[in-house]
Amino acid sequence: MNWLDSLFLLKEENSKGRGPSWRFRRKLIFGSYRIGVVMIVFGMFTFIWDRSVSVQLVVGGVALISIILTAYTASATFEDVKLYQPEREEEDV
Q1: Which of 7, 34, 47, 87 could staple 54 via S-S, CB 3.0–4.6 A?
Q2: How far is CA 71 from CA 26, 28, 64, 67, in A?
Q3: Is 54 within 8 Å of 62 (Cβ atoms)?
Q4: How far, in Å, CA of 48 to CA of 31, rounded?
Q5: At 5, which helix (H) or strand (E)?
Q6: SS in 3 state form for 29-68?
Q7: Confidence of residue 1 (pLDDT cuts 50, 70, 90)
Q8: From CA 73, how far away is CA 53, in angstroms rounded?
Q9: What is the DSSP letter of 21?
Q10: 39 or 71: which carries more pLDDT confidence?
Q11: In angstroms, rounded to a whole number, what is the distance separating the alpha carbons of residues 36 and 14?
């Protein structure tokens, strides 16, 4: 783990059995998810001093997490359906 991964709250994962695209995609998704959680927590702490900024931080963090979950499940479903179709046996009629 290098210092840039630590800055974006990423940790090294074992991607045994998965290609490099999933490894990279998961690092980005989990890092962005953690940044969204940090935005929400920071927005909750700053609510006393500046409500407009903290509300925008919480809304932005929730929106970021929602977009990430949608993109993650959609891309996983697409990859499962389109790229890994089981081979079908042709039947003689």
Answers
A1: 47
A2: 11, 12, 11, 6
A3: no
A4: 28
A5: helix 3-7
A6: HHHHHHHHHHHHHHHHHCCCCCHHHHHHHHHHHHHHHHHH
A7: low
A8: 30
A9: H
A10: 39
A11: 23
Length of the chain in terms of residues written: 93
Look at residues 42, 31, 27 and name the one whose alpha carbon lies nearest to residue 65: 31
Using alpha carbons only, how large is the chain's radius of gyration in Å?
19
Given the structure tokens 């891309």, which residue do they identify?
Answer: 75
* pLDDT at res. 32: 86
Locate 86 and state its tokens: 């089981």
Q: Is residue 82 left, alpha or beta, with left meaning phi > 0 and alpha meaning psi from -120 to 50?
A: alpha
- Residue 80 and residue 72 in contact, taking contact as beta carbons nearer than 8 Å: no
**Which helix H or strand E contains 71, and what residues bound it?**
helix 51-78
Q: Which amino acid is at 82?
A: K
